[in-house]
Each structure stands twice: as structure tokens, then as C-alpha cells.
Amino acid sequence: MRGAGAGRVRVKTAKNRTAQSTRWLQRQLNDPYVKQAKAEGWRSRAAFKLMELDDKFGLLKGARVVVDLGVAPGGWAQVVRKRAPHAKVAGIDLLPVDPMDGVVLLQMDFLSEEADAALAEALGDAPDLVLSDMAANTVGHAQTDHLRTMGLVEAAAWFAVEHLKPGGAFVAKVFAGGTDKDLLVLLKRNFATVKHAKPPASRKGSSEWYVIAQGFKGRAEPPPEV
User: Where would one find coiled-coil regions in this protein (predicted)?
Assistant: First the structure.
């Protein structure tokens, strides 16, 4: 590596490194959020995204029970612990996550049949905030990648609708085009407000946005048997 321009770092092309990975590495090395995250002890630059969303929407104010879907490497859970230190927090991810004080970490597939029960046992109470920074592994085909990630978002939304306390909130990462129509209908039916936001920490060239649904209306009671 060598300096390039005003303090920028240029990454030399390596024999076994693709052009795409070289661009990614160079972007990481020159990203001020990456540098700030490292300096302040955050596990990922994504921590700043949640802080910025929280500053705007007050997501963690009064939060007592929080679920972090797609918790690895733990940046969002760190923010929850800092801003809502008394909250119970449980995170789930396919990837291993280094232990965190005050956070129950489950290494398992969120889409598995066992996930709901495992999260419920870890929390001991219904959540008032469900966070999802999940994204499917990309295959390089834009439409396929979008559909795969939106499938995860939809699963996270249903989890929120089935488990949140009344008045609770749901936050999830979506991509260009925003929230799919059917999912938007689901959220608007079950939450008082549904908005989209792109926090400043989200790279300008990235297609990611976040959907923020607040004021969960509560699950409708089943009709009485006749």
C-alpha cells in the first residue's frame, strides 16, 4: 500500500485478489466511519447507522427488550447496550460472534423452526424493539440478490408482528426500491407509522435504505367461538 492524494490509501493489485476485492479494501481503508469505529472500539461501522437512526427516530428510548437479527459482528448490539444499558438483548446470526456483556448470542439460522423458541427463552419477555440488519449473501445477479434479501426482511417483519409488545418498533435494512408492496401493506396495517431513511453512515453509492415501523398496534384477538 502507498499514500495516494490527500491522505488516501491506494491498494496495490495482488496476485490472488480480484479487482472487486481490491476496490472494497481500498474503500474500507479510506472510509472515515471505519477509522472512527476502530478508534472508538465499535465492532463495525454499522454502529453509526443505528446511532443515526436512533437520533432521528428515538428507537432506543425506553427500550427494555431488544432483538438483533443478523447480529454479527455485533456493532448494533453494542449501540443498544450503550444507549439502553438496562435492556435485555438477544442476537442471532449464522456466523459466530465474540461474546458481549449483557447480550445473549445465538449462533443459528433465524429461519429455522427452533429460532423463535430460542429467542423467546433468551429474552424471557416480548420485545419492544426488533432490529434487522440482515442481508442475504449475494450471487451477483441484482434481481436475485434483491429477492433473497427481501425474503429475510419479510421473515423479520413477521417475527416482529408476531412477537412485539404493543407500541413497539421494527427496523430493517432494505435496498433500492424500498420495501416491497406486500411487505409495506403488512407494516402499515400493523404499525402507526412506517418510514424509510438512509442514515449518513450508509455509503452514498450503496443501495441500502432502512424501513422504520413504529407504534405496533398489537396482535388482533381471534374472533370468539360461536
Answer: none
Residue pLDDT, tens place only, 83-105:
999 999 999 999 999 999 999 99
Catalytic residues: 173
For CATH 3.40.50.150, the residue range(s) in the chain are 44-216
Q: Is 133 marked within a binding site? A: yes
* Distance separating the N- and C-terminal Cα atoms of the chain: 75
Phi and psi angles of residue 15, each rounded to the nearest 5 degrees, phi first:
-55, -45
> Binding residue per annotation — 42?
no
pTM of the model: 0.81
Query: Domain 44-216 in CATH: superfamily?
Result: Vaccinia Virus protein VP39 (3.40.50.150)
Q: How far is CA 115 from CA 69, 118, 126, 170, in A?
A: 11, 5, 14, 18
Q: Between these two residues, 1 and 224, which has the higher pLDDT value?
A: 224
Q: Is 76 annotated as a binding residue?
A: yes
CB burial of residue 182 (10 Å; 0-12, 13-18, 19+): exposed
